[in-house]
Amino acid sequence: MARLKSNSIEIMAVTGIGEIPRGADLASLINEAFVRGGGALVEGDVLVVAQKAVSKAEGASVDLSGIVPSDFAKSVAQLTGKDPRVVEVVLGESVRIVRMDRGVIITETRHGLICANAGVDASNAPGEGIVTTLPKDPDASARAIREAIRRMTGSDVAVIVSDSFGRPWREGSVNIAVGVAGMAALDDLRGKLDDRGRPLRTSVVAIADELASAAQLAMGEIGQVPAVIVRGYAWQRSDDGAGPLKRSPDRDLFR
């Protein structure tokens, strides 16, 4: 059942990238910074890139000075204590409100992600009165970075776009994969045998989420480390993106 090439994996922060401007060639910035630090992307690496970095490069940001909140946004803002302009952006990024309570808005995004504030965030945003949103298509963003890295280095790497999400029943946030390219996001172990020869019936491991969470240990929330290289994990090839990580409504006990 071992899934690693060896008994260990290596997690390497890509430092020295600095602030990421709108329109930046993110793949080049990451590769050049890694090379300056004495590293080199090699075949089989997993490149984990922070969603905020992708959003900045793609211009997925909103200037709140141009937002006119609706009456509904104003009423939600009054209930939650949030800026009504931010609420308007959150609503625009959402297909439905899942729950509102204690100053928290949980929504389902256009991507099918269920998270706080539809991923709209003011932390580390590129300016005062600016909020970032999730990339329009995180899988497409991951594919573009992967293809650019392959052109520059000749190496076939997997790419994960990660973001910090809260969790039901648990305090604290963890990084999860919102976009995936090149690798299978899930490792389905059903039908395989455990160490005692018994068949596994329900074991499906969220590999992309686990790698994203591991990368967060080197990435952190501050310090401008928007990318991490995970080396040594034997990922399986797939073009399915992050979609398999989303639980379908008919299998979701909490909808």
Fold topology:
Layout: E1 10-14, H1 26-36, E2 46-50, H2 51-58, E3 61-63, H3 71-80, H4 84-92, E4 94-101, E5 104-109, E6 114-116, E7 130-132, H5 138-153, E8 158-167, E9 170-183, E10 187-188, E11 204-205, H6 207-219, E12 227-231, E13 237-238
Parallel strand pairs: 2-8
Antiparallel strand pairs: 1-12, 2-12, 3-7, 4-5, 5-6, 8-9, 9-13, 10-11
Give the helix proportion (percent range).
Answer: 25-40%
User: Which shape, going by the Cα principal axes?
Assistant: globular
Structural class: alpha+beta
The residue-averaged pLDDT reads: 90
**Beta-strand segment tally:** 13
Proportion of beta-strand residues: 25-35%
Spans of at least 5 consecutive residues whose pLDDT stays below 50 are 1-5
What is the tally of helical segments?
Answer: 6
Give the SSE string. EHEHEHHEEEEHEEEEHEE
Cα end-to-end separation: 33 Å
- Reported by name, the CATH topology of the largest domain is 60s Ribosomal Protein L30, Chain: A
Integer-rounded radius of gyration: 19 Å
**CATH superfamily membership of the largest domain, which one?**
CofE-like
Q: Could you give the order of strands across the largest sheet? A: 1-12-2-8-9-13
Please indicate the count of domains.
Answer: 2
